[in-house]
Request: fold
Amino acid sequence: MSSKLSKIISTAVFGALLGTAGVSHAANFPEHRVNLVVWAGAGGALDTYGRELSKLLDEQAGWQTKVVNRPGGSGSVGMSYVLNQPADGYNILVHTSTLTFSIARNLMPYKLDDLRFVRAMQGEPSALAVRKDADLQSAQDFVDAMKKDPEGLRVGGYGTGGFHQYMLYQFMTAKDFKAGWIPYDASGKVALALMGDHLDAAMMTPSSGLSQVESGDIRLLGISTQERSSYFPDVPTFKEQGIDLDDMVWRGVSVKAGTPDDVVASIQAALDKVQASDEWKTFMKEQKQEDLSIKDGDFQSMAEKQLKTQSEFLKEAGFQK
Amino acid sequence: MSSIMDAFAVIFSFSGLACLVIGTAVGVVVGALPGLGPSIGITLLIPFTYNMPPELSMLLLVALYMAAEYGGSVSAILLSTPGTAAAAATAIDGYAMTRQGRANEALAISLNASCVGGLIGAFALLLLAKPLASVALEFGPAAYFSVGLFGLTSVASLSSGSLVKGLLAGAFGLAIATIGIDPISGVPRFTFGVPELFEGIPFLTALIGLFAVSEAFSLAEGGKTETHSITPRVRFALLSLTQWRKLGSTIVSGSVIGTLLGILPGVGGNIACWVSYDFSRRRSKNPDDFGKGEPAGVAAPESANNATVGGAMIPLMALGVPGSPTTAVLVGALILHGLRPGPELFASEPVLVNTVLWGLAMTSIVLFFVGSLLLPVWGWVLRLSNSVIAVGIGCMAMLGAFALRNLMFDVYMTLAFGVLGYILKKFKIPMAPIILSMVLGYLIETNYRTALITSHGDYAIFVTSPLSLLFLVLSVLSLLLPIWGKLKSRR
Reply:
């Protein structure tokens, strides 16, 4: 082949490529790299989810994605990063249910309406945990003990004014008892505090003390899933014990409000492919995560409902006047 | 037994050794660059381990972790810009040695101490993981408070010259530590509505500013005049017998301190080096030499911070709970392979566990060789002129400040700390106590308040918990002994 001919061919091919790029619309989203803006630092649960998502979007949907960590300000930093970009879907916020807490506590100068909710994909329940040798056998035992002496048991968990304390608050309202709250600044430390007899009962994510839960050193008296979790089939739900307590922390993705519908539809289609893949299912199993697929309007209304009850909780608990 | 043999087969395979060497080399560099520490280094490498067998990927990552703990000291010694927070203690005497033209000696001491510390930590993990982990469980909020307080008493040792200036710096650090969302009540304090301040001022930001940026300013101010009286040939890595006789006990005690403190989640690496520095100064015959280029002032913190690696792995392997930010990232790397660290891993994946445990011991040995090979490279750094070094430090510092959280805000904050550091230098106010009390302020405050919530406001909890009492007594002793010593010598 003469060099001239090859030049012509390559020009033609290149031109064709350019041409296809030129005529493409949002239906061909994405045309270039998509940023997954994780609003937490590297290495945590949210980052792990974001990185798996990035990998599977590349593999399953043929996207080109990049994880961008923007931690800080209880999520404000990541949020403002996304909100300062055009509403074109190229910056997808990877976030958690901390969103509603941060807004309820005025830690974040944004509203839910600033985002277009796309999909909640992972959920983790809270469970009432005690040490192996504790007298308590059920969630009701715990309620009875707290009613008898609100200061008798040392109750705590991860975070201040966060999800687990909020679950305890809902628990207290449902069963009309009082309990204190001893906050720990890392979820792993909660399991250690239980084991070391520095706490008597904790509201915790079961996976944060998985070794101890599986070995039986920590017993779970109730779990906040709607039905029994497939990961902890022996742990009764709060619901089946007659306690109206079902809620989960979620991790999901959203884009800036005003992102065109067809772009969001393309993102949804790609997420469908991700969630249908075996890799995703294995990943969720390994992480002991509940597989959620709460989309668009449903996702938004879930967040709105949570914002409302959490604001009540924060007022009640004295975090917000 | 056979799983140990299998583990050795993995470690000594070509790919196993290659992982150790690559991990170590990357670790030293990542550790030496201010702002990039072991946890960021591991996070950066994790994507490359997706398709590797879990054994090899863990070898690569633990090698990086271990080497980064040493790497932090390289820039601390050569340029007074500690690459990691743990190396800030090393900078004091290490940089003083460099200015006396003893950079090669300081680097060799750091390398030897790091390797021995790493080995002792690794063997503690191999032999004593279970009992040591149960000790970690005994530490409640009250005990953590007392450990923090004990760490704070080493401010006195860090204030070479004027104790008042040291205390001033320490108080300033504690004040900075109160910035951010109150960990107990959730109320933002001194954040002035700036969301970037909600998590507080990261101590790496302060560290880079106070040490690196201010050093760049000083070098720039000095112009072309030579402050580094250079002995550029850095080549001999193994310490001589005489040096070992002098420094051996410091290195061993530093390693033990590092291992024990490394076990405590959230405490470990950040305070072990200071406690070790303080300890070696107190038992030294010439405590006044510390801060002026005393070799033990390099050996003590460096052995301690590498020993924390093994220590921090103990709660991870024995309880499934990470003992340091870096081990938390390691958990993420394991989970990618569908493995969850914890005691049950010993039964389900014995080869992997043994590869990690013995591999960690091997990393120290590999570190010794890789570190020795890299020494001439550092000599080259010293031959650069001051103007080049000043610009280089400045660039590295800005990059590191940004890399921490990808925020320009942090870069500006680092610059502000740089100006502050420059002013503090003029007034001869030591900067190490600022870093120390920033690290400890949060630990002390949260645990103090958590302990009091637990006891319903009863202060007795600090003395009825035996571990808390132990560390309170140690704190009082460490404050009173020097005073008593002075009174005695006056008589």
In short: Residues 103-138 of chain B form the longest helix (36 residues). The CA atoms of residues 217 and 414 of chain B lie 13 Å apart. DSSP finds 21 helices and two strands in chain B. Chain B has one domain: 2-490.
